[in-house]
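User: Hey, my collaborator sent me this sequence without any context and asked if I could get a structure. I don't really work with proteins. Can you help?
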Amino acid sequence: MMLLASTIGLAGCQQIQQVVDPLSSAAPLPQARLLLREVDEQGHAGATLLKDTDGRPLAVLEPALITTADIASIALARTEQGQEPVLNLTMTDAAAPRIQAATEARVGRRVAFSINDKVLSVATIRGPFGKAMQVAGLGDPAAAQRMFTEITGTQP
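Assistant: No problem. I've predicted the 3D structure and written it out in structure-token form, which is a compact way to encode the shape of the chain:
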């Protein structure tokens, strides 16, 4: 598993921290638009313009490396250290090899994880991952629970 952490939380994609007490797990709603896209560092024409967590413009490349359809389940959990809320994403078996290849080709590059075009975190891929990833830097537990409910339609 890998960790996708925001620039305001942890610093990049790395081995995930130990997770304790998964609070809840569910499939994402089809209408929840979850995307992991490479940050456009070169200013390519046709890049999609979003705003980062601080409200600054952030250009991302299409197509997305991960979409909602690639995600089999999302678990709201917390780390053992500091009890920080995290989202653990498990990818579908069909998507995992493609995601593995895409992240392997992008080690060292920045990616943005967004929900409904709201950037949740920006991180650097430190190593390839395919079957699972973890999103940290979600803020307080109440905000993480609201986000989980928005994505899955279920209460944790």
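In plain terms: Confidence is low (pLDDT under 50) at residues 1-20. You can pass these tokens on to your collaborator as they are.
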